[in-house]
């Protein structure tokens, strides 16, 4: 666990220039106002448009960007927007936050090159901690655990699936029903159904439609399904 003493000692000696992007004006305003209240932060840019953000950041360079993960009105958001920001500004420390499902977004932010993720429900003081830690060690990734910002290595929900669950999902991805999968694998329908429900629970899927969309995205059916787990 990181102590408050560690957090204070990890603060950079210079004032950090920060850019804030959130498509909700009230959240953007509140986030920027809090950050301005911190003596080691200087908010240089406050934007509500993802499309205008990169252009504005090019004119007003910053050390750290605090980005809303979902920007539905922008040409690109989420994983692809973070990847674009990482490509355009390779030295920029990116801290992203969102009101969406934390486990999924945390992993996507990590894969996209962000240095930290925080749910919007977390206290703003923890956002300050995340910025300071990420700025001090940008090659690592930080997230919220038990009320504290700590270094983590996020895992995809798919990594938690058992071999049997993956096997069942691979067959379902080809269009087979639970009954047909059971016949193909020479197992009982109950066993296959149990593996399917367990996999859906781990993946956060609530119905067959969401599972079908997930499988369509994750599995390459044209190549008889990858041997790599999801």
UniProtKB/TrEMBL annotation:
Residues 154-219 form the HTH luxR-type domain. One of its GO terms (molecular function) is DNA binding. The modification 4-aspartylphosphate is found at residue 68. InterPro entries: NreC/VraR/RcsB-like_REC (IPR058245), Sig_transdc_resp-reg_receiver (IPR001789), Tscrpt_reg_LuxR_C (IPR000792), WalR-like (IPR039420). Signal peptide: none annotated. Keywords: DNA-binding, Phosphoprotein. It comes from the Bacteria. One of its GO terms (biological process) is phosphorelay signal transduction system. Residues 17-135 form the Response regulatory domain. PROSITE patterns: HTH_LUXR_1, HTH_LUXR_2, RESPONSE_REGULATORY. PANTHER family: TRANSCRIPTIONAL REGULATORY PROTEIN RCSB (PTHR43214:SF17), TWO-COMPONENT RESPONSE REGULATOR (PTHR43214). This is DNA-binding NarL/FixJ family response regulator.
């Amino acid at each position: 666990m990181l102590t408050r003493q560690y957090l204070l000692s990890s603060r950079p000696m210079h004032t950090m220039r920060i850019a804030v992007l959130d498509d909700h004006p009230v959240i953007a305003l509140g986030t920027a106002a809090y950050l301005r209240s911190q003596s080691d932060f200087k908010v240089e840019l406050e934007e509500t448009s993802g499309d205008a953000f990169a252009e504005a950041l090019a004119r007003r360079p910053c050390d750290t960007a605090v980005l809303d993960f979902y920007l539905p009105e922008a040409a690109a958001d989420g994983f692809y927007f973070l990847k674009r920001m990482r490509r355009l500004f390779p030295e920029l420390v990116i801290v992203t936050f969102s009101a969406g499902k934390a486990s999924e977004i945390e992993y996507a932010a990590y894969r996209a090159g962000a240095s930290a993720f925080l749910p919007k429900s977390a206290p703003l003081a923890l956002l300050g901690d995340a910025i300071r830690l990420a700025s001090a060690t940008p090659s690592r990734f930080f997230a919220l655990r038990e009320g504290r910002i700590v270094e983590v290595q996020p895992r995809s929900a798919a990594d938690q699936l058992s071999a049997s669950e993956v096997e069942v999902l691979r067959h379902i991805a080809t269009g087979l029903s639970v009954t047909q999968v059971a016949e193909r694998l020479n197992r009982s329908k109950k066993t296959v159904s149990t593996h399917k429900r367990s996999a859906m629970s781990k993946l956060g899927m609530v119905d067959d439609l969401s599972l079908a969309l997930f499988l369509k995205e994750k599995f390459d059916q044209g190549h008889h399904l990858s041997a790599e787990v999801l």
